[in-house]
């Protein structure tokens, strides 16, 4: 084999970093699934079983439960933000794109149990979650609202923060009343904001 035929050297450091990121992703996905079922106080052994690893592996990545909860919350927040585009899909109108995003946002609040509740926690590590939550998602919702308004499908005077707050408040009942249908309440809210009037010419 000539030098030209030899395979390029393997970057061991890069491979290790890739493996570490992949392992952490697996842990976060497993923890998120367990938190949805059992809340953020679920036993670490249940998370380890879900991920197919030992408990020591989890503690090496996340020394405290607060570290794990914050990491899962941000992981889910990333997924929500990354899954969202301000450009509608080919078969979506701007209003439909807005509705789809709000539905995902509502599911995030309703199904993530203690993750949403962690926004109001005073424990160390949780205090910046609310600001991060708003900073990451508010601009996305604002752009979706503006696109829908420009298409004449929603009123132009709707503030993104007001809508986010309204959706959040409508989701609160899901934790208290088993038969509470947050999605239906949110659908009614969005229907009330909709309009069929086309935008003025020149806009």
Automatic annotation (TrEMBL):
InterPro entries: Homeodomain-like_sf, HTH-type_TetR-like_transc_reg, HTH_TetR, Tet_transcr_reg_TetR-rel_C_sf, TetR_SbtR-like_C
Organism: Actinoallomurus iriomotensis
Name the record gives this protein: TetR family transcriptional regulator
Gene Ontology molecular function: any one: DNA-binding transcription factor activity
Domain HTH tetR-type positions: 21-80
DNA-binding stretch(es), residue numbering of this chain: 43-62
Pfam families referenced in this protein's UniProt entry, alphabetically: TetR_C_43, TetR_N
Keywords per UniProt: DNA-binding, Transcription, Transcription regulation
Cross-referenced SUPFAM superfamilies: Homeodomain-like, Tetracyclin repressor-like, C-terminal domain
């Amino acid at each position: 084999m000539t030098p030209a035929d030899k395979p390029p050297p393997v970057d061991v450091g890069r491979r290790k970093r890739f493996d570490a990121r992949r392992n952490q992703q697996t842990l976060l996905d497993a923890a998120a699934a367990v938190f949805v079922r059992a809340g953020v106080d679920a036993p670490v052994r249940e998370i380890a079983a879900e991920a197919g690893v030992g408990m020591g592996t989890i503690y090496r990545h996340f020394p405290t439960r607060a570290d794990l909860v914050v990491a899962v919350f941000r992981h889910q927040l990333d997924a929500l933000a990354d899954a969202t585009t301000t450009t509608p899909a080919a078969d979506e109108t701007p209003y439909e794109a807005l509705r789809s995003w709000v539905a995902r946002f509502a599911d995030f609040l309703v199904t993530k149990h203690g993750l949403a509740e962690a926004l109001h926690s005073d424990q160390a590590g949780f205090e910046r979650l609310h600001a991060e939550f708003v900073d990451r998602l508010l601009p996305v919702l604002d752009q979706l609202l503006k696109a829908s308004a420009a298409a004449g499908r929603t009123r132009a005077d709707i503030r993104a923060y007001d809508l986010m707050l309204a959706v959040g408040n409508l989701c609160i009942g899901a934790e208290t009343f088993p038969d509470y249908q947050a999605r239906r309440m949110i659908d009614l809210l969005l229907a009330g904001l909709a309009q069929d009037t086309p935008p003025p010419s020149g806009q």
